[in-house]
Design a protein that fits this description.
single chain; about 425 residues; alpha/beta; 2 domains; about 15% strand; globular
Length: about 425
Amino acid sequence: MDSSRVQRRCVFYFAGFDPSGPAHYHRMYQQEAALQAQVSGYDMEVGPRRKTGEHLASWSVTHTSKNEDSPTTTHTNYVYARWDDIVRRHWYKLDFSSSSWQFLVAFLATQWMYLRTGATKRMLQLSWPPVVAALSHALILVLVISLGIAAPWLTWSIAKYFFGFAHLSLPVRVIAALLCAVPSYLAIIWTVRKLEEKFYILWLIRGYLFTRQQALEQTPELDERLIYFSKIIYQALESGEYDEVLVVGHSLGTVLAVEVAALSLMEREMHAKKKQFEGLVDSKEPRTSFSLLTLAQLIPLLSSLPQATSFRECLKQLSFTKNFHWIDISAPPDGCCFVLVDAIEAAVPVEECGHYRAKLLSPRFQTLFNAAQYQALRKRRLDLHFQYIKSAPLAGEYDYFSISAGPSHLHTRFQNSASITDFKTFKTFS
């Protein structure tokens, strides 16, 4: 067996803060893989989606290269780690239910917490675009809500000035004021929904609200889920069935991917110590390589909060890990992530860290599109943020489907790419 090639792989994919479930992501992977295969010159066969665990859905992927003298076939078990049900329970809606008021209270509490603890300043020092995006969206939301609150009073004042309601009884005046408030409330809902359709102002803010709850340890269902995932990943690592176990996180899913990877490594270390105690030490290197791929990462969103001590411990754990490979990929035009930011260095004091760091790379989307297509993509913010897991019209070094299902180990594929450690374009107050 050629150890430099991956014949069997297991991928664990963590989506961002998205209520869409495995059906959506399976359909996307299947469609986009077929498009990318045509562009890049390999064969991809994506099998049907199936439930493989209490919170797991998976599908098989067969990748066959065609550009070599002896074509290589790689079989991948692609596992979608479900937390979409948790997202839906925390997905505030702006409607006529109490959810709107809960959203407003959580929104104000979150903004105050990030400002009060200095997390906003710390994130601005690392990379200002995602912070400015969130703050500008927050400002728009506050402005719309303020206008909505003021509108009934203005409407009532105008009506009283022109029509004179002074002679009316108090109950009638109260009813009239409430009737003025109804169209104002409808206007708030309609305006925010239109802004959401165009600018996705609530998407990023919802992620902020949930991250605050994570830091305050108010998401026990997610904590239990991550422990469950870490045990499944550990089993895959120890099974000897795979050449590579690859954990992938996208957007806010990078926070989960980092924590699960650290928990899996802790599990492996605990079992290794137990074997050592029992005199069952295996001196050979692990056959299965363990890799982490973070795409469009939002890790400082949680790690910058002082309350997120357990998460920073996970980052610290990764800095001391051996036989582990972490590639972090982010694109400078993507204003919804912390571009080329060293997540460990940003969260853990240097004197407490080990020597290991993620390799920071750019997908260089500009090389995967012609000029007109690329400029159009840059204007579609959400599409750009999801481009990491989609196909592109031109072949290039970055190819998510070859990375997640092709014959090369993650670290081998990028071994000749130097980590980008001098990117300071978006740093402030440094």
